[in-house]
Amino acid sequence: MALGTWGRVYLTPDINTLKFATKGLVAMTLSLYLAMEMQLDRPYWALISAVFLQIRPQSGLVIEKGLCQIGGTIIGGGMGVLIMALSMQMPAIALMLLMVWVFICATSSSLTRNFNLTYGFAMGAATGILVVVLTIVNNNSSQGVFDVAVARVSEIVLGATCATLVSMLLWPDRVRYIIHGHANTVIDETFKALTMHLDATISMIDARQQIMTALSQALTLNNDSSAVVYEGPHGPGRARAAYLLSQRALSMMAEMQTYGRLVREHPTLASEAFESALKDIRDTMERVRSRQTYSERKREINGLRQRIQKAELHRHGTPLARRMAQGLMMLLGYASVMIEAHHAINDAENTRLKAPRLSRHRDYMPALTIGIRSSLLFAIGAIIYVSTQWSSGVLMMVMPVIFGTMFASFPSPTAMLKNVMKGGLVGIFAALIFGNILLAQAAHEYIMLVVVFGGPLFLGLMAINNREVLANGLGFCILYIILTMPSNNMSFNISSFMDRTLAIGLGLIILYSVFRIVPSPNALVLRRRVIRATTDDMMQLWARSCRQSRERASDWFNGRMVERVQRLANFDSQLPEEERYLLDLGMTGMNFGHLILANYRRVTSLDNTPDTREALRQWQTALAHAYQACAWGDFDERFTEASQTLLERLREAGEMDDEQIELIEGMVRRLNITLHRFAKMSSSRDQGDISDVLEQTS
Fold first, then answer.
1. Quick one: which of 124, 51, 21 has its CA closest to 486?
2. Which InterPro entries does the annotation name (predicted)?
3. Which segments of the chain belong to CATH 1.20.120?
4. Which one of 6, 254, 338, 698 counts the least CB within 10 Å of its CB?
């Protein structure tokens, strides 16, 4: 009988899980020992700090997370001191200022793609709460405020430092190995997506699902690459190579999606030679995926490019067919750069590549929703505390803010919170038995504390190392530590234990309720904002084309588009299978941006007169508006007019030969086909979506 997830974790654990739990336990016991030796008031905060650093335990990621945690803690502590300096005698004003600080931290956390930085913002909010609220609870003076801030910062920084050192010294696991695996996966999934898109026998539904898989892998590679810079002098080189690989993978995906549609919906465009070239590309890509060495992959790609060039497909057939042939060469160029970038990741000592990180699309409406939600969580806890003067209410204010900020950007935060609460429930029973019954009977020595306290903690860490039950393990460890409160002066008081349990439980229930009551903005609203933001970026590409290289402008556009495409794909998953088109719409927007950049370079390199530049600018503007119009279910005739004007201007100028103009004409025809198709697909479905929204609001 096959074991379930829990059975695999605890009955047949792998060596990596055992190493991870051992490293985590060593880091936490070391931080506890040092905190107790330093006579810190609340050593358990050092443990909590170390727990969060156990998520993704590779040395570079731990260093990055530790720096974010330490930076957020110091800034949060400083903000807490500043708030109390401004309102020492006015606790209500202090709590109001603190709510504003929580709002700023939570909103900012949702505007970053880096989860470690998100955690840093969460710790900034939590430390500010601890400094201000503990000062109010204990009626401290101005000197007391500073002492509280120093103590809280010391505890959290100590835990982060111990976790970082243990991660680097005990069974170190390097991010570069993770990056190498990600890079292999990106190449494999992207080339597989290309093979599927160029094969008319494979349904577009399957091809679309594959491109979504490849897109997710490219974004993962980009996000994880930031931490490899901390791993030796060649780390920055590996990071740049990884950025380049993810950028070119996105460019290839943007290009292949359109050709996949044309191959299926307009088979008459493809000649026998063109079909032979497509088969050659598919077969070669399958061989490249099976090759293991850089030289073998490079030889296959170069041979394929030479064969396609000799076929001279771009010189025969209709303008649209010739434009498609030119696009195939572009796809192979992206593939070649991806192979080079993968080699540079492995051989960073001898290879130098330059590429920026993916730019970030920031949608402030969801960010403000997250900020309002977190500040509301704090406000509810503060109101309960002010009304009852409940000392344990501090936990009710801190923990929901930390979890709410960390999980808010997840696709399904309520599901994560459910698992945290389930793990926390087990942690409550473990804390009662091990932390308040068994420890009360044991000798009050550090060794005995570690022996009794460490067993359940080791089991919780084993769960954290497995993605399926990570949230359960995290909830278990956090509540187990907080309710046990290991320190020099532990008190084994059941009433105090129940008091803290009630505070944390109430806080988590409030957190879950607020997530349900204050949902994310409506999907239709967000979808329209994504399309409008894409249109705005396409408009900006003219200015960027004038002052930046095509590669830099393309990289900027890719980064801002990748999350929009993922968001559209999430909306797509809520539609019936036969009505899904939003992922295609997002990928088409990315492809349009690349066409704008390519057309600008192609035209201005041959004809850079003011009249031609103006006609080209108007054409790019019309294409951006046409893309937005087709997403709303309409076709903007201004694009047809602008295209005709541009072609007439190029013919009148005489700077470009007929073959080059015919390629641009073929591109325009392809764009017209795509825009009409999406306008038709969107018109009826948008009406249905709007009707659904009206029914929900009524």
1. 51
2. PHBA_efflux_AaeB/fusaric-R
3. 175-346
4. 698
492-519 residues labelled b (16+ CB within 10 A) or e (exposed)? eeeeebeebbebbbbbbebbbebbeeee
Residue 360 — pLDDT band, cuts 50, 70, 90? low
pTM, two decimals, is 0.74
Q: pLDDT of 420-463, one tens digit each? A: 888 889 999 998 888 888 887 766 678 888 888 888 888 888 88
| Per-residue three-class SS string for 527-573 | HHHHHHHHHHHHHHHHHHHHHCCHHHHHHHHHHHHHHHHHHHHHHHC
Residues 6+ away with beta carbon under 8 Å from 268: none
C-beta of residue 372 within 8 angstroms of C-beta of residue 518: yes
| Residue 104 confidence (pLDDT) | 92
Q: C-alpha angle 597/601/603, rounded to 5°?
A: 115
CA distances from 273 to 46, 279, 308, 653 (A): 67, 10, 10, 34
How far, in Å, CA of 465 to CA of 78, rounded?
Answer: 33
Listed as own residue / partner, the contacts of 137-145 with beta carbons closer than 8 Å and 24 or more positions apart are 137/391, 137/394, 142/84, 142/85, 142/88, 145/80, 145/81, 145/84, 145/85, 145/88
Q: Which two tokens stand for residue 362?
A: 């920031």
**And the tokens for 373?**
């939600």
79-130 pLDDT per residue, tens: 988 888 888 778 888 889 999 999 999 888 888 767 778 888 888 888 888 8
How far is C-alpha 600 from the geometric centre of its chain's CA atoms? 31
Q: Kindly report, residue by residue over 206-263, the tens digit of the pLDDT.
A: 887 888 888 888 878 877 777 777 777 777 888 888 888 888 888 888 778 767 776 7
